[in-house]
Design brief:
58% helix; single chain; 121 residues
Length: 121
């Protein structure tokens, strides 16, 4: 299957992962739940076990969300004359919501990059 991996573009493979679809066929779902990975693709039967992403998705998620939230805070702080506890509530809540929302998509993208670069199928 190395030839099928080479025939599609890297961007297409990663985009499939971000959409939480099988990086090889683009039709089967990679996840059975929020972050739980299926054993294999229902369409092309590719095993997802070799695509172990481990700690990379949380790292990338916090990297992206941290930069986004801190940048927004620094840009909007002069225009938001609220007490410190309100700022803490706003920015901590935004951090939590963005982290939980982005994590599954980033995990799918990381798994697609692993498939594209080294996974033996």
């Amino acid at each position: 299957m190395a030839s099928s991996r080479q025939s599609m573009s890297a961007l297409e493979t990663v985009w499939r992962g971000f959409r939480r679809l099988c990086p090889r066929c683009g039709e089967g779902r990679m996840f059975a739940g929020y972050l739980s990975v299926r054993e294999a693709c229902a369409v092309c039967k590719m095993a997802f076990e070799p695509l172990r992403s481990d700690d990379a998705p949380p790292y990338f998620t916090l990297f992206i969300v941290g930069h986004l939230v801190v940048s927004l805070y620094l840009l909007l702080w002069p225009y938001m004359p609220f007490p410190d506890w309100v700022h803490a509530l706003i920015w901590c809540s935004l951090t939590l919501v963005l982290s939980l929302a982005l994590l599954p998509f980033i995990k799918g993208g990381v798994m697609a990059v692993i498939f594209r670069t080294k996974a033996s199928q």
